[in-house]
Amino acid sequence: MPDTSGASGSTPETHVIDFRAAERLLAARDPRGAVKLLDAVIAAHPENTAARLLRARAFFAAAQLRPAELEFTVVLEREPDNAYAHFALARTYERQGRHDQARRHFRLAAALDPRPDFVRAARFDPPAGSGG
Hints:
The chain is mostly helical and 132 residues long.
């Protein structure tokens, strides 16, 4: 007999499918569609940091900056060493005109992961003799 206890019939497997579909929607420039799928995933699994990070990215892509900021902040509370989340939060602050907060998170991102784009955004000077 099938389980009819859930209104949507969602299972852990459908949440994985929804997460992957949300990734594809975001890549296809449909961030609002991605957010809709991720809302159900996060409601069922609020501890899922990967889903929260993806939803934060989708909010950012949809220019929903306050929800993006809140989600990136949740991710950083759970993973303070997540360089990408610092970088993305900095971009969110930058788009809101909050440049001091943006600079702080750009620098944290660059300190955690010295990728060239993170370092450029942090406006660090290259080390002497590095040729860059």
